[in-house]
Queue: 2 jobs
Job 1
Amino acid sequence: MNKNKNLKLLAAKIRLDILEMLMHRGYGHLGGSMSVCELFAVLYGKHLNVDPKNPGKEDRDMVVLSKGHAGPAWYSALAEMGYFPKEVLLTLNDGGTILPSHPDRNLTPGVDATTGSLGQGTSIAAGIATGQKYKGKNAYTYMIVGDGELNEGQCWEAFMYIAQNKLNNCIVIIDDNKRQLDGYTKDIMNPFDLKVKMESFGFKTLRVDGGDVDAIDEAITELKKVKDQAVCIVLDTIKGQGIKYFEDLFSNHSVKFNNDEINAASEKAVKELKAFIAKEEAK
Amino acid sequence: MIKLVKNRKEKGKELSKFFCQTVADLMDHDDKLVFLDADLASPSGSTIIEKSHPDKFINVGIAEANMVGIAAGLSIEGFKPFIHSFAPFASRRVFDQIYLSGAYAKSTINIYGSDPGFTVGPNGGTHTSFEDVALYRTIPDAVIVDVADTTQLESAIRQAASEPGIKYIRLNRKAVRNVYEPGSEFTFGKGVVVKEGKDVLVITAGQILSDALDAAEELEAKGVSVEVVDIYTTKPLDVELILSRVKGKKALVTFENHSIIGGLGSAVAEVLAEHNVNIVFKRHGVTDRFGQVGTPDFLQAEYNLTGKDLVKTIEALL
Ligand SMILES: Cc1ncc(C[n+]2csc(CCOP(=O)(O)OP(=O)(O)O)c2C)c(N)n1
Ligand SMILES: [Mg+2]
C-alpha cells in the first residue's frame, strides 16, 4: 500500500521532534508546524538535491519557508537529515541560538532564506528560482506558503511574476490548513477555491492530501515534468495535523504548554509517536 | 494632574487587553470609532472589541498595507480608525501607505504598534522594531507615543481618539511596572519631570522609564543626583522642557528602547545643537544593530537597555 514507508517514518520523527522541542520551550507555533511534517519528509527524504554535510553545495535545491513561523518543522527535518545534532533543537529561541523562531539564513545550516514577515518569502523564492535559471542550473526552489499568508498582496505579485516568466523550477506549495492566527480562513479572509484561483493565475495546479506522503511525492514528481508553465501544489492539510487533540484545539496556532490538559495530551502524543517509530523501525 | 505611584515595583494591567478595553469603552459613546486588526486579534486583545462592537471591528486578515488603506478610506468617510499590528508591521511594512494615504492626505489613523524593541521576545529579529520611531518622526505632524504604563496609555488613547491626524502608539502587550497614579493625564507634546535632580539629566520614554528611575535611585545612593524626564511624545517634542531642564546639569543622557539613530536620542541631539547647548551628552539606546531572538529580559540585557547599563553610562560620563 504505502510506497514510501520510510517517508512516513521520517514524518513521524519530524512531528515528534517538533512536539518535544515546543514542550521543552513551553510554547510555540504548533499548528502550522504540524501541518507540514509530511511535506518536509517528502522533500528531504526524497526530492531535494542537497547535502547536509555541505549545506552551501553549488546547484542545490532551495527551500523557502515563507510561512516562517513553521521554523520548528524545518529545523526538525534539518536535524533528522544531520545538518546539526538533534540536541540543538532544544535551544529553540534561546538567546544566542542558531534556531530562532523564524528562519534566518545567517544562523542555521540548511536555511537559505530569511523569513517571518509573511508574504516576503514568496518573492524571495521567485528571485532564487530566476537566479537558478540564469545560471543554467538544473535546480528547484520549493516555496512553502500559508493559506492565511495569501492574504498578503505580495504573494499574488510573486505568483504573477512566476507565471509570467514560466518559472517551472519554482514549485509553489500552499499549506491549505484552513486556519490562520485568529481562526478559520473562511471567517477572516475567505480564500475560496485555491486550486481554481491558482489555475486562473496561470499555474498548473494539483490538489493533494497533505497528510499522505505518497500523494505529495507523486504530485512533486508530476510537476517536475512540466516544462513551460508555473506549477503549484495545494496541500490539503489540517492545522495541528497528526495529533487529534491539537487538530481539535481551536487556538492551535501558538500553543502554551501551561495546563494539565495540554500537557497530558502532549505526553500521550509523544508516547504514541514513539511507539509508531519503534514499530516502523523494527520492520 | 500627574501623580506618581508609591510602589514602583507593582505592575499594572496587561497593556494589550487594557488598550482594547479602553477603546471599547470609548466606542460605547463614539460611533465614529472603528478598530481594525490584521489577523492578530487574539495577541492584541482586540477580540474584546470584536465581541463588544462586532459592527465596528474589522479583521482584514494578514494584510497590513491593505488595513492602512482601508483605515484611510474610513477616515475620509468621517470615521476614526484604530489599527493594530506588531510594531515593525505597523511601521516599516506599511510606511508608504501611512505616509501617503494617511498623513499626506490628512487622514486620521491611530496606530497601535505592539511589542517594540526588546519587548518582542521570542518572535525575534524579523519582528523587531528598533527604527519605528525614526520612521514616524519623518512624517509631518505625526504624533509618536512611547507608552510608559497603563495610566499613560489610557490618557494617550483618549487624546488620540479625540483628535485628527496620525498617531503612533508603541507599547508592550504585557503588563509593565506602574509609574503614574490612575487618573493622571498627559498631553501630546508635553514631557513630565518624573524625578528632579541636580547633576545629570536623563530623558527617556516608554516602559524603560521605570528602569531609568531604578538607575536614578542607584546613583542617588552613590551621591549622584539624577533628574529623569519622561518625554512622553518623541514627536511633537517638548523642546521647551528639554532646554529648561538641561540648564545647570553636568551631563545629559537619552535612554531609549530604539536605535540611537533617528529616535529620541537624535531628536534631543538636534535640539541641543540648534540651541547651542554645550553639555556632555550621550545617546544610550540600540547601537546600529538588528534584532534577534530571546526572552525580553535577555534582549534588554543584550542591547544594554537595563537600569544597570544606564548607571554605567552615566558613571562613565562623570
Ligand atoms: C507580515 C506579518 N504579519 C503578521 C504576522 C503574524 N503572524 C504570524 S503567523 C500568522 C498566521 C499565519 O497563518 P497561515 O499563513 O495560514 O499559517 P499556518 O496556518 O500554516 O500557521 C500571523 C498573522 C507575520 N508573521 N507577518
Ligand atoms: Mg493556515
Job 2
Amino acid sequence: MSQVPAIRVDALRKRFRTTQALDGVSLEIAQGEFFGLLGPNGAGKTTLISILAGLTRADAGHAAVMGHDVVRDYRAARRALGVVPQELVYDPFFNVRETLRIQSGYFGLRHNDAWIDEIMHHLDLTPHADKNTQSLSGGMKRRLLVAQALVHKPPVIVLDEPTAGVDVDLRRSLWEFISRLNREGHTVLLTTHYLEEAEALCGRIAMLKSGRVVALDDTKSLLQLTNEHCAQLRLDGDAVPAVWQGRLQRGADGSWVFNFGEYAELENLLADLRGAGIRVTEMQLQEPDLEDVFTDIMKRA
Amino acid sequence: MSGLSALFYKEMLRFWKVVVQTVVAPVVTALLYLLIFSQVLEEHVEVYPGVSYSAFLVPGLVMMSMLQNAFSNSSSSLIQSKMQGNIVFVLLPPLSYLEFFLAYLGAAVIRGLIVGLGVWAVTLWFAPWQAPHVGWLLAYALLACGIMGAIGIVAGIWAEKYDQLAAFQNFLILPLTFLSGVFYSIHSLPTFWQAVSHFNPVFYLIDGFRYAFVGHSDTDPWLGLLVAGACFVAISAVTLALLQRGYKLRH
Ligand SMILES: Nc1ncnc2c1ncn2[C@@H]1O[C@H](COP(=O)(O)OP(=O)(O)O)[C@@H](O)[C@H]1O
Ligand SMILES: [Mg+2]
C-alpha cells in the first residue's frame, strides 16, 4: 500500500470578487518531498496555501493534508501542518518565549519547553528569548514565524516566501535548518521568488500562472525542458564565416553570443572557426537555469 | 492544556500586561463620576426612600464599568489582531469556533469583573458600605459581562478599521449605557421615555444589579434576569453562528 500523500489538492477553485485566484488546481505532494511552488505575483500561491491552512475556503474542489480533509477533518489537518505566513506578523504584547509557549498551547501542548529551546537554538533566537517581539529586526521576526510554525512538530511544513527581505546569512542558516528537517522526514512546500533557491533545494516544482498549474515536474526534468545553452565568445577577427552569420549575435562589447541546443552545434562552430583561421580568445558557457525555464514557461502559458 | 485554555490565558495575559490602561484607568474614571455627581446631587436627590444618592449611584457605576470593559476587551483584542495580522496565529491551530468564542468571552468577563470589583473597592471610601445580595449581584454581573463580551467579539470581527469600532462604541454602546439609569431612576423620566427605556436591555442589567445592593428597583429583578438571560442566549447564538461561518475571519 502506498503512503497517503502529504498534500493533495484536487480541482481547487477560488474566486475573489472579480479575480479567479485559483482556476482548477490539482497537485499531489508525497511525504518527504521538498516541493517548490513558483509563479509570478498574483499567481495564486498564497491562496492555495491559505486553503490548505483553513484560512480561506475554496469555492470548489478538495484539499487534504496527510489524508485529512482541511474542512471536514480540520483539526487533524491543521495539527499536521505548520505554516510560515508570507506577511511579517507578530503580536507586540508578548516576548519570543511567551509567543512560542502560547502557540504550543493552541495545539494542546503544555510541556513543550525542551522543543521550544531546541528550535530557538537552531534559529538563533535563544539570545532574544526575553525580547518583546516588537523590538525584533525583520529577519528575527521571520525566524520567530518559522519557530511558531514548528512548535507542534508538524509532518508538513509550508513556507510562503520565507526569505523575502532576509539577509544572506539568515537565508543560509534557515535553509540548513529546513533541509535538515526535510532529511528527518518532514515534507516541505516552499514558495519563493529566488529561483536559484528553488533550483538548489526542491526535488519537484510546480509553476502556477493565473491560478493554473502550467508546469509540474522534477527539477531536473524541468531544467532539461529548455536546452537553450549559451556561449559567449571573443574572436580575434571582426567577421565570422558566412554560414554562421545568422546564428551569432554581436554583443555591445564586441563579443559574440551563440545560442544552441546540442553541444554538437558548438563543436561544428568551433571547427568552422578554426578552418577559417579565426582564433577564439575567450569563451564562456552558460548552462540553462531555472530562471530561463521559468521565463520560457510563463511566456508560453 | 487544551487550545481553549491557551487562548484564554493569552487573552488574560494581554490585558494584564497593560493593566494601567485596562483596569486602573476605568476605575479612576468611575471614581471621577462618583465624586462629581455625588458632590452635586447628594443633597438634592433621593431616588428611593432612605437610600443616599451615592449609594444609588455606586452600583450603576460598577455595572457601567463592567459593561464597557467587557466589550472593550474582546473587541479591541480582535481588531488589533486583525489589523496587525497576527490573528492567523489563532486561525492556524486546530481551535474550534466554540473554543474561540469561550476564550474571548471568558477573558472579557474576567476583565469586566476585575474592573467592577476595582470600582466597587475604591467607591467604598466615598459611599456607605452596604452588604449586597450575592446571588443577584453575581447573576447580573456575569450576564452583563457575558452579553458585552459577546457583542465585543461580533464588533471586533465585523470592524475592519479602528474608527468603525469607535463608531460602534460611540453610537451604540455608550448611549445604551448612559441612557439606562446609571445616574437616575427612570421613574424620574417622562412616561414616554420610561416606556422607551424598557426596550433597552442595559436598563434591566443596571436596575437588577442595583437591586442587589439597595433592595429597590424600577422593575421586578426576576423579569430583568429573564431579559438579560434571553439577550445573552440570543447574542451568543449570533456570535457562534458568525464564528462557525468564519465571517470576516476565514475568507
Ligand atoms: N482576500 C483577497 N481578496 C481579494 N482578492 C484577493 C485576496 N487574496 C488574494 N486575492 C487575489 O487573488 C490573486 C492571487 O493572489 P495570491 O494567492 O496572493 O498570489 P501569490 O501569492 O501567488 O502572489 C491575486 O490577484 C490577488 O489580488
Ligand atoms: Mg503570495
